[in-house]
Amino acid sequence: MASGVAIQQHARHFSGSQSADEFTLNPLLNLLTNTLVLHQTIPYLPISSLLNLAATSPSFHDLLLRRTPGVFRHLDLTRVKTAQFEIDGGIDHGGEVWRNVQVDENLTEDDFYSGPLRGIIQSIRRRDILHHVQTLVLDGLSVTAEFCNDILVDPTLRVRILSIRDVKNLNERKLMQSLRYVCRSTRPDDTPRLKGLYVFGARDAPDLTASSPTGQNGTARASSNISIGWNHKSQHALKESFRAEGDDWYHRRGRIIGRHITDGWAETLLDCREMIRFDAVLCTGPRHQNSPAFGKVPVMSGGTAPGVDSPWGVATFALGGCASCGSSPEGFTEYGDSPAEQLPLLAPVPLHSSTIKAATCPNPNSGSGTGKETHKFIPRCLECIRERYCFSCDQWWCESCYQVPSRQELSAQHVHIVDQTDGLLDHELAALEPPNVKVRKGYCLNCHPQSTERRPGIRNPFPP
Ligand SMILES: [Zn+2]
Ligand SMILES: [Zn+2]
Ligand SMILES: [Zn+2]
C-alpha cells in the first residue's frame, strides 16, 4: 500500500537521530501537509483533537496553528464533554458545571445556564482561535439567549452560521428580540455578521462513536483522535448518503418542522429576511400578506375561528403541487428561480464551507432527476392546509381548485349523517358525504378510515 511505502521512506529519512515518536508521527504529518487532505479531514476533528495534535510537536503546531488558515473555521462543540449541562436526572456533574461559573450572590440565570459554554468559549478565545470560527454548532447544549446575543453583537467574532437546534434553556422571545435588533434598519454597515441560523429543525442524529479515549500519551492520543475523526467522517458520509435520497423541503413531503413554533418567529423571519437565513421559511399560503397570491383568491380559514388569522406564518409543511392543478395560487418556491431570501437552510450544516450558498443548495443528485424543476416545493403552515391536505397520502387541493366547506356546513352534514347511519352499508354512507368534499378530518376520501371501518371512535384523528 502507498502508506506503507511512505512509512518506509520516512524510516530511511528519519533513521538515526529522530525519536520513535517523530518517526511514528511524520507519516501523519506528511499526509496532513497535503492541503486537500488537511481541509477534508479537519472539519471532522473535535477541537480538542486539533489542539492535542498541535501540541505533539513543533511541526504540527506550525502546520495547524500558524501556516494553515481555516483550521478552526468549523467549530462543533456538541461532542465536548465540558459543554454539557447536566443538572437533573440524579447525575452530579456539579464540578464540571460549576467549574467555569463564577459562583457568587450576583450569579444570574444566564451565568448559571450558559456557564459551561462560556467557559469553553473563553478558553478558545484565550488561544486566539475564536475569531477564526465561521460556523459554530451548539446543537443540544445549554444555550441562553444572552449567549446568542453576545455571538451576534461581538465585533471581534465572525460567526456566519450558527446552529442551535434542540438546545436547552433558550428564551426564544429574547433571541427573537436580539435577531430583530441586529437586523434593524439603522444597523452599522457589514452587520449582522451572522448569515444563517439553524434553530427550527432537529439536530443531526448523535454519532455512535465513543468519546475520545483518555490516559494515553500525546502521540497515541493524536493518532487515535485522527482515527475517531475518520470514523466521524464516514458517519457524516452516511448522513450525506441519506441526504442523497432527498433534502428536507425540496424532496420530502409532509411535516418538516416537528416542534412548536413560538409566537413571534414569523415576524422575526420577515424582519431578518434580507440578512439572516433560517432552516425554515415563511408560509406562502394566500391567507398571508407575504404571499404572491394574497388577495387574489378567495380564502376560507379552513375551520379557524375568526380573528386568529396571522398576517404571517412559519411554514412547517412542504407540499408538492395541488392534486387538481399541479401547482398552487402562489406557485412553487424553486431553487435557482425564487429570490434567495426565500430559500431555507438545509441540514446537515455544511462542513466544508461556511457560506449561505452551500447551506441552501439542494443535493443536485436528489429528486426525480429531471433537472432543476425537481428542486421545488410549496411551504405551508398547518392552518393553510387544514382540511386541504391528506396526512396519509400527502395529496392536497389548493384554494383555486377547492373551497373547504364551512364549519357550519360540515356540522350540519355531520348531524345529517349520524341521523341516518343505522343499517346503512359503507358505499351508502359514502354517498351521504357532500359531493365536493376532498378531505375530512385530515384524510382524503380514499384514505379516510371510514372506507375500511366506520366507527364513531375512529372518525376524528385530527380534531379541529
Ligand atoms: Zn389547484
Ligand atoms: Zn400559512
Ligand atoms: Zn389520502
Write the layout of secondary structure elements.
Blueprint: H1 2-13, H2 20-33, H3 35-41, H4 47-56, H5 58-67, E1 74-76, H6 94-99, H7 109-126, E2 135-137, H8 145-153, E3 161-163, H9 172-182, E4 196-198, H10 218-244, E5 254-255, H11 265-272, E6 277-278, E7 317-319, E8 333-334, H12 356-360, E9 376-380, H13 407-420, H14 426-430, E10 439-440, E11 443-444
Helix pairs in contact: 1-2, 4-5, 4-10, 8-9, 9-11
Bound molecules: zinc ion (ZN) (3 copies).
Brief characterization of the structure:
This protein has 464 residues and is α/β, with parallel strands linked by helices. Helix content is 34%, strand content 6%. The longest helix is centred in the middle third of the chain and has 27 residues, at 218-244.
Overall pLDDT confidence: 79
What's the Cα radius of gyration?
27 Å
Distance from N terminus to C terminus (CA atoms, Å) equals: 65 Å
Q: Stretches where pLDDT falls below 50 for ≥5 residues? A: 1-18, 88-102, 208-219, 302-307, 452-464
Number of helices: 14
* Strands, count: 11
